[in-house]
Amino acid sequence: MPPNFKLQGHFILIFLAALRGESRYLEMQEAVGYDPLLLFNANLKRDLAGEQPYRRALRCLDMLSLPGQFTFTADQPQLHCAAFFIGEPQEFITIHYDLVSIDCQGGDFLKVFDGWILKGEKFPSSQDHPLPTMERYIDFCESGLIRRSIRSSQNVAMIFFRVHEPGNGFTLTIKMDSNLFPCNVISQTPNGRFTLVVPHQHRNCSFSIIYPVAIKISDLTLGHFHGLHLKRPPADCGEIGDFVELLGGTGLDPSKMMPLADLCYPFHGPAQMKIGCDNTVVRMVSSGKHINRVTFEYRQLEPSELENENGNSIPEFCLLSL
Ligand SMILES: *[C@@H]1O[C@H](CO)[C@@H](O)[C@H](O)[C@H]1NC(C)=O
């Protein structure tokens, strides 16, 4: 089970900065001690050095979007720590233990979670992840170095850890590997374009955008509509088997979000929607009988676009306009 994780102000700041698409910036800022000139130089050096691995210390609460080697060393007992990793949509994350010096008998732990958990909400949700929830936790204190390299099933992963003894800690190497058919994704950026393809797989895929966005679906192919099987759109997409839904909500877990629209017949021309929720998800449910594909573009809503007529704050239910 995950530790009962308390959100601290510091952590919220890191998390929000990262979710606002500044995670790469944050990394660099951290590495060079907040000097913009040094920041620029460091960027340049990194570009020139090319293959030089990126190294830095890991904090008790941290967020990483770059591959590299990261070392955590406790300077005091650290009991509630977590680090969130995020890659590009078409990347898996591999976490490799280079060195682990913790006291499992004494109550320390180091666990990888395949996805993200925040305030009890998981991404991907258990309906969308290929593994049962318990198998998504890999506990160093149980498996040791038998599982020295752990690869995530999508572009996000995290670790939880607790280290009592000052001086103890661990070193990890984070690598990104390419994923030909990304299924579950959290977008690192507030603006983008993506094509989700589910080729003959019985699985559900969620693409999550943690910003209020205008989203434009430009193309939808659901294999079962080759030919003219249908005289009119069905009343309920659930009867069809394969469909795309748009979800809105405030937490991470798509299964706890509100359905805003269902799309289960082919699309002609772009359809745009503005969704004022903190989190917007494009979710595809696939039976495995077909090749399904959806293409969409999204951009972050301006603050002025987020005000509704009654001056109420969102959600109501986040759906602002079509
Ligand atoms: C996909 O999600 C639907 C509900 O939206 C669920 O009924 C179904 O079991 C899920 N399929 C898989 C393969 O997990």
Automatic annotation (TrEMBL):
Residues 53-176 form the Corticotropin-releasing factor binding protein N-terminal domain. GO terms for molecular function: corticotropin-releasing hormone binding. InterPro entries: CRF-bd (IPR008435), CRF-BP_C (IPR056178), CRF-BP_N (IPR056177), Sperma_CUB_dom_sf (IPR035914). GO terms for cellular component: extracellular space; nucleus; secretory granule; synapse. GO terms for biological process: behavioral response to ethanol; cellular response to calcium ion; cellular response to cAMP; cellular response to estradiol stimulus; cellular response to estrogen stimulus; cellular response to gonadotropin-releasing hormone; cellular response to potassium ion; cellular response to tumor necrosis factor. It is found in: Secreted. Keywords: Disulfide bond, Glycoprotein, Secreted, Signal. Residues 1-21 form the signal peptide. Residues 185-307 form the Corticotropin-releasing factor binding protein C-terminal domain. Its main location: secreted. Disulfide bonds join 60-81, 104-141, 183-205, 237-264, 277-318. Binds CRF and inactivates it. May prevent inappropriate pituitary-adrenal stimulation in pregnancy. Belongs to the CRF-binding protein family. This is Corticotropin-releasing factor-binding protein. It comes from Dipodomys ordii.
